[in-house]
Input
Amino acid sequence: MPPTSNRSAVVRPRDAASLLIYRRQGAQVQVLMGKRRPGARFLPDVYVFPGGALDAADALDVTVTQPGAEAPAGVPREVAAAAGAPGSAGRDPASRQTNLQSSPWVRAMAARDALHAGALVRAALREAQEESGWRWADASPPTLDATGLRYLGRAITPAQSPRRFHARFFAVPHTRMQQDPHVDGELLDLRWVDARNPDRLPIIDVTEFMLAELRSALAGEREGLPLLSYVKEAVRIRRQPAGD
Output
């Protein structure tokens, strides 16, 4: 009989996305954050950006090539259109893929492909609406290169964590979003937080790191796109050039 091991199986991280909705107040950069509920399975009572795991609807690889084409059964047409073409529903799939791959931040994400990157954008915006009531203001779905939408970096939860995520972080100015006053989001105590967190709200190291990345990005001082991961519980930061 082979020897048994006491080591627990490593949980594979789920794809996830978060959105930093920010605004400027004079010289100060403020970011929309909220407190997770006390009974949450992941990070209870901690202040976070709106975000969460990729859903099946976010990741649909659906192409509606003709204006009159039918979406697959059970798939809303607006979801199919968003998944099929970031620009217009009638664009050629091959040229769409090429155009998406030409985006520097898409390449730097190390996503499976450019359409997967689009799914992560949709996940970030969907989670923002569900958790905070803020939604993309334009009627049309956002493209990967939408004005004001930027990719900040990614982070992977420690291997020993029972719930693991491979999270991508995006940022967008609040002027590109619209608040629905009739929506009660999932986050508690939703507020604008100084990106330097002078009030010392309870946040985790990844959140603190991405706040610093946002400040650097807005100041034009970044040296590449980061991946934050852990080696034996120690934080490791690797950076990849953003490209041309």
In short: Confidence is low (pLDDT under 50) at residues 1-6, 61-102. Helices lie at 77-84, 93-101, 104-108, 114-132, 205-218. Residues 133 and 181 are 7 Å apart (CA to CA).
